[in-house]
Amino acid sequence: MSNKKAATRGRTSTATATFDTADRPEKIRNVALVGHSGAGKTTLAEALLAATGTIPRAGSIVEGTTVSDHDPVEIAQQRSVALAVCPLQWDGVMINLLDTPGYPDFTGELRAGLRAADGALFVVSAADDIDPITVALWEECAALGTPRAVVITKLDAPRADYDAAVAACQRVFGGADGQAVLPLYVPVDDRTLIGLLSRSRVSYADGFPPTESAAGDDDIDEPRGALIEAIINNSEDETLLERYISGEEIGLEVLVDDLETAVARGTFFPVLPVCSESGLGLAELLEVLTGAFPSPVELDLPETLGLYGNGEKALECRADGPLLAEVVRTTVDPYLGRLSVLRLFSGTLTPETAIHVSGHGGAERGHPDHDADERVAQIFSPLGATLRPIERAVAGDICAVGRLGVAETGDTISAKSAPLLMAPWEMPEPLLPIAVEAATRGDEDALAKALARLTAGDPTVRIERHADTGQLVLWCLGEAHADVVLDRLRATGAHVETVPLRIAVQETFTRESRGHGRLVKQSGGHGQYAVCDVVVTPLPRGSGVQFAEKVVGGAVPSQFISSVEKGVRTQLELGVTQDHTPVVDVLVTLTDGKSHSVDSSDAAFQTAGALAVKDAAANGDLCLLEPLAAVDITVPDAHVGAVLSDLSGRRGRVTGTEPDTTAMIGMERSIVHAEIPDAELVRYATTLRSLTAGTGRFTRRFARYDLVPPNVAGSLREALAG
Asked: Do strands 28-34 and 119-125 pair parallel, antiparallel, or not at all (unpaired)?
C-alpha cells in the first residue's frame, strides 16, 4: 500500500507465537470472509495461513485437506457449510479470519461470523459475475455500518477479467457513482502488481514475500488520480481538497493515513487483486487488514443488559473490564464433548473462571430459555479443527472452551457474580418444513438426544411438534441445509426417516343439519340411558365451536347439559369423518332429549352428544378448511412477473405490491403481498430461489382458515387418508 509498509514484508513472513495479545485488544483484527460459494474464500484463507507460516503449506479443497473445511459434510460436498476460525499473525497483529459459508442455506453460520467480526472481506471471482446473494450481504453489512474491503480472486482463471470485475463491484457495491469502491493496485499479470499510491511494481515471481521496484513508465495516472480524489473526499482535513486542486503534491503518508481511517470508518472500500495460487497480492491484503481494518476497541459493543432487569450496561472492549462473551458456534467433539467458540467483547477469560451461561429469546425455535453457572476448564485457540491450548483470552479475541454443559450458539457468557445478557443477532427465518420420525420405537430416545445436540449448535433450525397433526417438523433454510441437518442427526446414531408433511386442515358444515344421539344399554344393574337431539349451524370463519341449549320441559336435566356440551366438543375436536379432521366454525344447539331417573349419567350424555353430532355430519354437507398464510415476498423488479405467474399456479391471491424502500440505489426491488395456502408453500423456499436466481426472500405468518376449492378437496382428502 505504501513505502512505510514495505519493510514489514521481509521481516514478518512466519506466524510464530512470539507475541502475546493479552492486555492488547488493539492488536487484534477479526475479519469475516464473505462471498458466494465458489468465489475462493477458503482457498484465500489457506494461502494467507501458508504465507504467514501458520501452516506449512496450503491445503486443497479437492483433497479435503483445508483448515476451514474439516467437517465430513464439507469434505464430501467440497464447500463450506459451517463457520471456521483461522487465526494468523502479521506485523505484530493477530488476525482472526472467519471463513463463512457462501451458500444461502447456511446464512446462519454467516450471520454468526459477522457477529464475531469487526470487518468484512468480500471475495469476488474475476471469472464470474457478482451473484445477487453477495449483493444482499453487502446491503446487510452496509445497514450495520461494517467496514469492508473487496478482494478479487482467481486472476489466473481462463475467463478472468480484473477490470470488468472492478467495474461490476463499483456498479453493485458503490451506489450511484461507485467512487467509494476503488482499486489500490492494478495487476500486470498473475505475478505482478502496480501500487497506485506508491507508483511501485511488486513482483511475486519468486513467491512470498514479494520484491518491490519503481513502476517505471506504466500508465496509471487516471486510476491513481481517481483514488487520490476519493481519499481526499473522505479525509477529515478540510483543507486537503483545496491544496490538491491548487496543484500541491499530497504526501504519501498523509494519503495512507486518511485511506486507513476511511476504511476503518466504513466510508471507503478498497479493492485488491489476489491470486491465491501464485501468492499475488497476499502481502498487500495483509497490510490492509492490519493497517486499515478496525481493532475491537474502535467499535461499539452490542447492546447489553443486566440479566435481572438492571438496565443497559455500557461496556468497552477492555481486558480489565467485566467479562462478556458470546457463543458464536457450538460443536460436539468426540473427546471434549460440547465445544463452544466464543467471541470475547470485554474482560479476560482464564481456566477455572466461574462463569454464567445465559440463553434467552429462542423458545419459539426449540431453544428454551436457560441460565446456569459453570466453570471454565481449558481454553483453546481454534485453528479449524485443531485446538491449541492457551493460558488466557482477552477482550476482542476469539477462543474455544470445552465441556460447557448447557451453552448453545447465541448464548451470553459473563461473570458468575455479575451476569449479563447480550441482544441476540438477527437469524434468518427457516421456511422449509421437513417432517421426520424415528425409524423404530427404540430410536426415539436417540432422536431426542440428537435434536438437543442439533439445536445447541444450529439456532437456524426450528423444531416443532405440531399439535394438530402430531408430526415432528424440522424447519430448515433450504434443501442443502435440510440434508446437512439430517446427516448430523443420523451421525449421532439416531435412525431418522423423513415422511410426507401433513397440513393441519379442518372441516366445517356448509348448511344446517340435525342429528340424533341415542345410548340405551342394559347390563344387569345400572344401565346407560341418554338421548340427545341437536342442530348444527354453520358460523363465519374464525368463530370456533359454540354451544347452546333450547331444551324445554326438562327433557334433558340441567345437570347433564354440560355433559352433552363436553361430548359434543370432544367429538368435534376428534373429527366426525374417517379423516379424523377437527370440525370448527359451527353452533351446536341442544334442542331435545330424554333421560332415565336411574340409568342416566354424565358419561351417558357425553356419549349421546358425540353420537348426535356424528349423525348430523352424516345427514349434512361438510367441506374442508385449509390454513392460509399471509406472505410478503421481496424480489428484484426483473423477477416480479415470474413470481406473480408462479403464485397464480399456487392458488395464491395477490393483495398488493409496493416498492422496497430499503433497497440500495440502483437495486430496484418490490414487495409482493399475497395469501397462499400452506399446502402450496411446503417447497416454496426452494422454488422462489430458483425463480429469482437466489435473490428473492419471503416471510410468512398465519392468516386464517378458508374453504378448500372442490377441485382440490378430493386430492387433499386422499392425502389425509394416506
From this structure: parallel
The grid coordinates listed for 350 are 482464564
Spatial separation of the C-alpha atoms in residues 149 and 381, rounded to whole Å: 26
Contacts 24+ apart (CB under 8 A), 201-209: 202/283, 202/284, 204/278, 204/279, 204/280, 207/279, 208/13, 208/51, 208/279, 208/282, 208/283, 209/9, 209/10, 209/13, 209/283
Helices 684-691 and 640-649, packing angle to 10 deg:
150
pLDDT of residue 525: 66
* Residue 655, C-beta contacts closer than 8 angstroms, at least 6 positions apart: 673, 674, 675
Return the half-sphere exposure (C-beta side, CA atoms, 13 A cut-off) of residue 69: 28
Q: Nearest Cα to 527, choosing from 477, 582, 573, 595? A: 595
Residue with more model confidence, 313 or 213:
213
pLDDT > 60? residue 9 = no
For residue range 211-254, what is the model confidence (pLDDT) as tens digits? Answer: 988 877 667 888 998 999 999 988 888 888 888 888 888 889 99
Q: Which residue has the cell 423477477?
A: 639
CA distance 722 to 719: 5
Mean pLDDT to the nearest integer, 467-484: 91
Task: For residue 12, report the phi and psi dihedrals to the nearest 5 degrees.
Answer: -125, 80
Alpha helices in 458-524 (DSSP H): 479-491
What are the pLDDT digits (tens) for 189-211? 889 999 999 999 999 998 889 99
Q: Which residue has the higher pLDDT, 417 or 176?
A: 417
**What H or E segment, with its residue span, contains residue 591?**
strand 586-594
Averaged pLDDT of the chain:
89
Q: Which residue has the cell 469502491?
A: 181
**Residue 404 in contact with residue 340, Cβ under 8 Å?**
yes
The count of other CB atoms within 10 Å of the CB of residue 622 is 22
Separation in Å, CA 254 to CA 2, 202, 234, 289: 11, 22, 12, 19
- Give the amino acid at 616: A
The residues with which 98 forms a beta bridge, in sequence order, are 32, 85
